[in-house]
Task: inverse folding
């Protein structure tokens, strides 16, 4: 089974603001970014599953493919940090998170380990064919770790662009 992954397009939020579960709209660049995604994807998948957050749903609707929604592929919950500029978050908390990105629980939110566990449960229920997820950076990082592409620590620190499309064996 191949697992195809798309990270949503750019969200409408100022640079330097922490977000995960915030239900953000897409940026003004959406038409261009979504068209670039559309040109790269396959024509058919066994199943398309989408995060319930608006930035993923709008891309799925634009791609005009039948899809299901599953909350287990939402982005990491950054709790009290959601919507706060990184510069205004307590530097000691950010350092604690950076030093244990997998196990640190963001105040009022999740650990990356929590994301891995819910994504693992989700992946275990997928049919054995080619599936497409339209999701978020944190979920894609969890997939890299769960599929053995990268270690959990390396996956947690890897970055990707908005609208990235990739395939994991």
Result:
């Amino acid at each position: 089974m191949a697992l195809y992954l798309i990270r949503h397009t750019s969200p409408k939020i100022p640079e330097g603001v922490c977000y995960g579960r915030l239900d953000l709209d897409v940026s003004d660049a959406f038409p261009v970014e979504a068209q670039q995604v559309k040109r790269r994807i396959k024509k058919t998948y066994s199943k398309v599953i989408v995060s319930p957050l608006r930035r993923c749903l709008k891309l799925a609707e634009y791609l005009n493919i039948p899809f299901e929604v599953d909350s287990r592929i939402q982005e990491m919950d950054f709790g009290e940090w959601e919507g706060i500029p990184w510069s205004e978050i307590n530097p000691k908390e950010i350092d604690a998170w950076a030093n244990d990105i997998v196990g640190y629980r963001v105040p009022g939110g999740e650990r990356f380990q929590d994301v891995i566990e819910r994504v693992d449960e989700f992946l275990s229920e997928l049919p054995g064919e080619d599936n497409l997820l339209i999701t978020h950076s944190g979920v894609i990082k969890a997939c890299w770790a769960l599929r053995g592409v990268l270690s959990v620590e390396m996956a947690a620190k890897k970055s990707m662009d908005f609208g990235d499309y990739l395939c994991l064996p």
